[in-house]
Each structure stands twice: as structure tokens, then as C-alpha cells.
Design goal:
alpha/beta, 8-stranded mixed sheet, 15 helices, 15% strand, globular
């Protein structure tokens, strides 16, 4: 635990509130280890049961996690707003930052001309009664989804992919329910599952998506929902192939009651065909964000699914946020209609593919195994994650530690290729070779 912060309190509620205060102020940063139940109970002169109850409440709210013999620690991204300076450790001065997971901002479409057109054509302000999902957005989104083989009987819009997934999980599940998540998988989703009080069940991933063995095991323990990334899986770059999709559909048909959620966040950036699992179960949803192709600040995703599931999401929107801004919807419509933007997005996808393949080829020439079939990240299993991150930092590179993305798989680092130039590839490959002093395990360090 941070030496300058002491947890206080005489009841479970007071102790958990004290920990939350430490997180909110930054005095208990992500990864900070809390005292053992017995040690804190002795210092506060309360029963171990009181401290245990406080820690349980913090776990249920997603603020802390149990790390086996390493004790209880603050999650990497607890669901409490902290001071901005405590949200992310900045890379060392002069380092090449490959840790962000963001698209290359140089390749994003310019929004200025489209915003100017929107300003010139937008009419009178609308009121609450006229707000909602624009029919034109639904028509265009349905056309784009149908071209990829996704059923479009019901379509709505949410404030980004994670917002849509949260609404799906809260509409179908209750705290304590088990949910299948990819391992390694999207850090934001793992944090969301913890914050909702759900129980994550890790499903191993290989280059072709969730493994049939892993899905079978998750179904056997009774998961009530399964979240699958279609393409450009974060952090591994896995993509669900046609053969893997066939295998997974056969398994999922044995659980028609399962909520199946597909995340296709890469969308137009993906350089591989989509092999969707949509409509395999009674309750299903397919979520596609506009953030990766068009810009992270565009908080909009389209969500297709069966009528009952989409109706639940739309109903939750009405009693909460209400709707996705119609101004944002109109901006997305303009971007979708612009052939020049389509060409720019295709060129961005080709650029990511070229840089990702160049880095992986350079690593292969050095005998280093990496993963990244699609997307903007490369996943590199390493023998010692802490040593690898520190060594790369000393060499002038900031990478993301694999601990942010994994539940039961082995140590690794995630490298975002968006900032790389051609001249960066070989020096980076040399540094990564030094970070993998012994043969890395595979697949994905499992």
C-alpha cells in the first residue's frame, strides 16, 4: 500500500469509503496493494470479518481485485473518477509511445468540412419529442451490416461500443452472473464486467478467435453471456475465421438461452472478411463502433440484434441518456456517404496492415513469435512482463503491460503500431528481441 495513505474506519462501510477516497485522490494508485485482512483489522481494532466485508464490497464494485498470494490490490482502472494526473502514467520523455491502442491520428478523416456542412444545413433546434435514432442512420447502417452478412431486423444506436455492451449486459444479467470474456481480452470490457459485479470466465484466444475448447468450458460452467470480438481483437489481433465461426456456432446452438454479443470495433479498417456469429442464439447483438475508423471522439456505435434485445437496449437509453446526439448521428451519416472518406479509411487499413506485418516479419527474422493477424496491435508473449516493460522503457519505448488484458494467460506486452514509421521497425524489433530473453510461450502465453 502507498506509504503515505492509511485506510481508516470502524465499520465495513467506512473502510470501503476510505479506500475509495484514496483511489479518487490518487493516494492509492492502480496496482497499490492493500493490507491483509488480518493486518488491517489489528491496526483499526475491528474484527477480521469487518475488513473482509469491506474488501468484498470493493471487489463487487470493481475497485479492487484479489491477486492470489499477492493479496488485494487496486484494479488498474477502478470505476471511480480520479484526478486526471493519476489516470495514466506518462511515458518517459522522448520515448516512442506504443502503449495507447489508439488509431493513427494522421490517418483519420478531417471532420472540419463535414462539420461546416452540418452547420450550414442544420435547421431549427429539435426538442425531446423529436429526438431519437435517425431513420437515415438506420438505413445506412443496415445496408453496411447486411453487406457483411449481419441480420438487420432491429437496429439502434448507442454512445459507443462499450456503452452498447454495458446496456446489453445490464439488461440480461444480474450481479454475480458468470459472463464469458476473451482471455487475453479488451481491458475496458474486463473493467466493465468487474464494475457491474459480474463474474468473468476467461475464454482462451488463439489467432482464429475464441478457442472451441475454451467456449465449451465456459458453457459448461453456466455462463449467461459471451462476448466475442469479430476482427482485430484487442490486444491480440485475432480474427474469427470461417472455420472457427462454424465450430463456434455448433457449440452455441446448444445454449439458445445465452446472450451472444459480438464486437466489430475495427469495422471498415479490417482487412479480412467478417464471419459473424449473429442470430446463433435467441438473444444476440452485433455492435459496430465508428471510433476506430473515423476518430475516438465520435462516441457512436450501431447495434443490431433480435427484436427483444434491441428493444431492451433502446428502452434503457430512453430512461437514461435518452438518445445519441442527432448532431453526431448526422455527422456519421455524412462520413459514410463521402467516397473520399471511404477511400481514406481503406488506405488507413492498408497502412496498419503494412506496418503490423513489417514488425512481425522483423521479429520472425529474429526468431521471436508474435501475434497480430489484424488491427493496430501486436501481442508479444514475454518471459517476464515487468522486466520487459522496464527494459523497453530504458530503450526508449513505452508499451502496455499484458496484465491489463489477461486473466489466466501468461505474461506479454501489447505494442500499438499506429505511431511507427518504416525507420522504426528494425530498431524496435531489436529492442523486443532483448525483451524476450528466452523463447516465449504460445499461443498468447497460455
Amino acid at each position: 500500500m502507498a506509504a503515505h495513505y492509511q485506510v481508516e474506519g470502524g465499520t465495513a462501510a467506512e473502510i470501503s469509503a476510505s479506500v475509495e477516497t484514496g483511489v479518487r485522490t490518487g493516494a492509492l494508485p492502480p496496482g497499490a496493494v492493500l493490507p491483509s485482512v488480518r493486518a488491517l483489522a489489528e491496526r483499526l481494532a475491528v474484527s477480521p470479518a469487518t475488513v473482509a466485508k469491506a474488501y468484498q464490497a470493493l471487489r463487487q464494485r470493481g475497485l479492487v481485485e484479489t491477486a492470489g498470494r499477492h493479496g488485494t490490490r487496486i484494479r488498474h482502472r477502478p470505476p471511480v473518477a480520479a484526478a486526471r494526473s493519476a489516470l495514466r502514467v506518462p511515458p518517459a520523455a522522448g520515448a516512442l509511445d506504443l502503449s495507447t491502442g489508439e488509431p493513427d491520428h494522421r490517418l483519420l478523416p478531417s471532420l472540419g468540412p463535414h462539420l461546416a456542412d452540418l452547420a450550414a444545413t442544420t435547421g431549427d433546434p429539435i426538442g425531446y419529442a423529436d429526438a431519437g435514432v435517425l431513420p437515415e442512420l438506420v438505413r445506412l447502417a443496415s445496408r453496411r451490416l447486411a453487406a457483411d452478412g449481419v441480420p438487420t431486423d432491429a437496429v439502434t444506436a448507442t454512445n459507443g461500443a462499450l456503452d452498447g455492451i454495458e446496456r446489453l449486459l445490464t439488461a440480461h444479467l444480474r450481479p454475480g452472473d458468470p459472463v464469458g470474456v476473451e482471455d487475453p481480452g479488451w481491458a475496458n470490457l474486463l473493467d466493465l464486467v468487474a464494475a457491474l459485479g459480474l463474474r468473468p470466465v476467461g475464454v482462451p484466444v488463439d489467432d482464429h478467435g475464441p478457442t472451441p475448447h475454451g467456449v465449451r468450458a465456459a458453457l459448461a460452467v453456466g455462463v449467461r453471456a459471451l462476448v466475442v470480438t469479430s476482427r482485430a481483437q484487442n490486444p491480440t489481433g485475432a480474427t474469427v475465421t470461417a472455420d472457427r465461426a462454424t465450430e463456434l456456432r455448433e457449440l452455441l446452438r446448444t445454449r439458445p438461452d445465452l446472450l451472444l454479443v459480438e464486437d466489430d470495433h475495427a469495422a471498415e479498417l479490417a482487412q479480412v472478411p467478417l464471419h459473424s456469429l449473429a442470430a446463433t442464439t435467441r438473444s444476440w447483438a452485433f455492435v459496430r463502433s465508428v471510433s476506430k475508423p473515423y476518430g475516438p471522439d465520435l462516441r457512436l456505435a450501431v447495434l443490431a440484434g433480435d427484436e427483444a434485445t434491441v428493444a431492451r437496449v433502446a428502452g434503457r437509453m430512453r430512461v437514461g441518456a435518452g438518445w445519441v446526439s442527432t448532431l453526431l448521428q448526422r455527422l456519421a451519416i455524412r462520413l459514410w456517404r463521402d467516397p473520399a472518406v471511404d477511400a481514406q479509411v481503406r488506405a488507413a487499413g492498408e497502412s496498419y496492415q503494412r506496418r503490423r506485418q513489417a514488425l512481425r516479419a522483423a521479429l520472425a527474422r529474429r526468431g521471436v513469435t508474435s501475434h497480430g493477424e489484424t488491427g493496430i496491435n501486436v501481442w508479444l508473449p514475454v518471459p517476464d512482463e515487468t522486466r520487459a516493460v522496464a527494459g523497453l522503457r530504458d530503450a526508449g519505448y513505452a508499451v502496455a503491460p499484458g496484465a491489463l488484458y489477461r486473466l489466466g494467460t501468461g505474461p506479454a506486452v501489447r505494442i500499438t503500431i499506429s505511431p511507427l514509421t518504416d525507420d522504426d521497425i528494425e530498431p524496435l524489433a531489436d529492442a523486443l528481441l532483448r525483451a524476450t530473453a528466452v523463447d516465449a510461450p504460445s499461443p498468447f502465453g497460455a
